[in-house]
């Protein structure tokens, strides 16, 4: 891809139009590849949720969407997708896992990660979006972050510091979103240190934290491409 790719982060209510492009692209992908019409991270409630951060991958005009992911903060208002997805199988997700720290939410979830066919094989969905979401955590009032992974995304989550949460389900494994599909519950408990991340990923995460707005050349399986990162978020009001 010759034109630069933009990767930007914003709170969902600040850009409803981009949220709808995200929602429509994600929904279409789920239907085409998996025959799934609805999953817990695929509803529209998050679009007006002030504690949801959207990471979107766009063309240089800001009108075409190539993929995205979300970071949803646990606030007692909108349940995390992982709560709704596995709560009926393992109620510990409500009491033991999605912790609240006083009056401030202590947990978040990376969810809704997807990329379009146009950028398949570039590493956007498998690594860049996960890396960006983890980099964003130090701008948010959270202590840990959950992620519910399909088999194809488990390896990428491990690379950025997630470990399998064996306290849930069958050693972290569930049948979701259908009885013939498997999902793995994972968690990063030390979002500031990300001690379990591979060193190359840790260095890139820390670089994005130090310089949230930057242009850099990324290299994926299909070669190199330029990415403009716009990851600075307005300070959250408690």
List its salient traits.
globular, alpha+beta, two-stranded antiparallel sheet, Aminopeptidase, ten-stranded mixed beta sheet, 238 residues
Outline the structure in words.
By secondary structure, the chain is α+β, with helices and mostly antiparallel strands. It has a single domain (about 5-230), classed as Aminopeptidase, CATH 3.40.630.30. It contains six helices and twelve strands. The strands form two sheets. Strands 1, 2, 3, 6, 7, 8, 9, 10, 11 and 12 form a ten-stranded mixed sheet that branches. Strands 4-5 form a two-stranded antiparallel ribbon. Helix 4 crosses helix 6 (about 200-210). The chain starts with a strand and ends in an 8-residue tail after the last strand.
In short:
The protein has 238 residues and is an alpha+beta fold. The protein is built from six helices and twelve strands.
CATH topology: Aminopeptidase
Distance between the termini: 41 Å
Approximately how much beta-strand content do the residues carry? 25-35%
Helix content: 25-40%
The helix/strand order is EHEEHHEEEHEHEEEHEE
Molecular shape: globular
Oligomer: single chain
Structural class: alpha+beta
**CATH class placement:** Alpha Beta
Count of distinct strands: 12
Assigned CATH architecture: 3-Layer(aba) Sandwich
Ranges where pLDDT stays below 50 over 5 or more residues in a row are 100-104
Number of helices: 6
Q: CATH superfamily membership, which one?
A: Gcn5-related N-acetyltransferase (GNAT)
Number of domains: 1
